[in-house]
TrEMBL record:
It comes from Rotaria socialis. The chain crosses the membrane at residues 230-251. InterPro entries: UDP-glycosyltransferase (IPR050271). This is Glucuronosyltransferase. Belongs to the UDP-glycosyltransferase family. PANTHER family: EG:EG0003.4 PROTEIN-RELATED (PTHR48043), FI06409P-RELATED (PTHR48043:SF145).
Amino acid sequence: MGRMGWNGMGLSHPTRSSGTGIVRFDRMKNLIYGLVEFLLQTDSTSVILALRGRNYDNYQVVVNEMENVEYRRVMLDDQRVKIEHRFVQQKWILQQNSIHIFLSHCGMGSSVEGLYFQKPILCLPIHTDQFANSIAIQNSGVGQSLFEPPSSIVESLLKPQDYHDYTFSASSVTKKVLTMWRNTYYEQAARLMSLEMKHAGGVKRAVEEIELLVNLNGDLSRYAPFYQRYMLDLMLVFIVLPAMIVLYCFVKCCKRSRKQKKD
């Protein structure tokens, strides 16, 4: 029986009442309804959800308020839906061959663990770096995201709150999970990503690099030119050039405005 694992927000850490890892009630409702519909369309599947604190409370409210008899039957079937509201061993769960999709908030740690164990990821970001991680996961083909980024950079700058206030429907959850379920494209992409990560050397390689830096007394002049050591190339691309473009456009607009006044 295939399983779809979910990293509930704050899976490995206590969920504080005022924490930022809380799934809003409307998202929780659409998520659960979408997963139930997925279970109804795939007879041999099951779901394990790790929910703690307020997330677990919201989940219970959603289930208790379900009016659809078939939905309630599925959610109350402990062979199809298993709820963990205490600490669970996330790495151990991800190593199981019966887990085929990892539903995660896409923090960096969870994303790396999911990909390391070759699990395609369905992203449900909540804050900070999770949005960027979910976009990267979707663009790299190792998963999909319930968060759809703005269509342009300008739009994201004008409405930055849309990142945190985004919504998704229950049908979109079902559609994305069905698309990813046992899909060789996503499985192959996750497998290749895992191979690349393991080839990089992992913790052992990281320790070796740190020890090398210590032995060099922090001197990287042999490995990188001065403009890279001081990130001048990044400052040029992301600060200086955009500032010059804005300044140029501003000057052009001012000249055009003066010319129109004279005419």
